[in-house]
Amino acid sequence: MEQPLDQLYQAVQATRPLLRNITAAVERGSNREGVTVGQRAILEGLSLFPGATAPQLCTELQLKRQYVARILQEVMKAGLVDSRANPKRARSYCYRLTPTGQDIITAIRTDEMSKLASFSKDFSPEELATYHKVQLALTRFFADLAEEV
């Protein structure tokens, strides 16, 4: 009989292929809408945090500043995002989705949510809540480990 710690270890080990498969699926869905995975992340971030600054997006999405800056330039050039002067800081900008950007992230999320709804039928609401709780705790735990000297 497996011990709970062994099960947890195996679950953590299963994360690597899970992340590869999630990335591939997200990439496929994003490509259908004409955006990259990175662009999709920024579009989703701005759909959740309209008017966010680049540093706010970095924090919320847990992405590096240079990467966010590069992707913001790409989505602005593509007409998916626009910027406005930040009223709180003279040399800072707030970013918002354009109607086209909003349409793209809505289409991607609608497709993903439909697929997740089908998948989730095999689990109770309690099981899904427990999974969510454990995943968030693991993310915090490994983020803390990564910061240790």
Q: Roughly what is the average pLDDT, rounded to an integer?
A: 94
Number of strands: 2
CATH architecture descriptor text of the domain at 36-107:
Orthogonal Bundle
Low-confidence segments, given as residue ranges, are: none
- Estimate percent helicity: over 70%
List the helices and strands and how they pair.
Blueprint: H1 4-13, H2 15-32, H3 37-48, H4 54-61, H5 65-77, E1 81-85, E2 93-97, H6 99-120, H7 125-147
Antiparallel strand pairs: 1-2
Helix pairs in contact: 3-5, 3-6, 4-5
Quick synopsis:
By secondary structure, the protein is mostly helical. The protein has 7 helices and 2 strands; from the N terminus they run H-H-H-H-H-E-E-H-H.
In words, what does this structure look like?
The chain has 149 residues and is mainly alpha-helical. The protein has helices at 4-13, 15-32, 37-48, 54-61, 65-77, 99-120, 125-147, and strands at 81-85, 93-97. Among the domains are: 1-32; 36-107, Orthogonal Bundle (Arc Repressor Mutant, subunit A), CATH 1.10.10. β1 (81-85) and β2 form a beta hairpin. The protein is globular, with a radius of gyration of 18 Å.
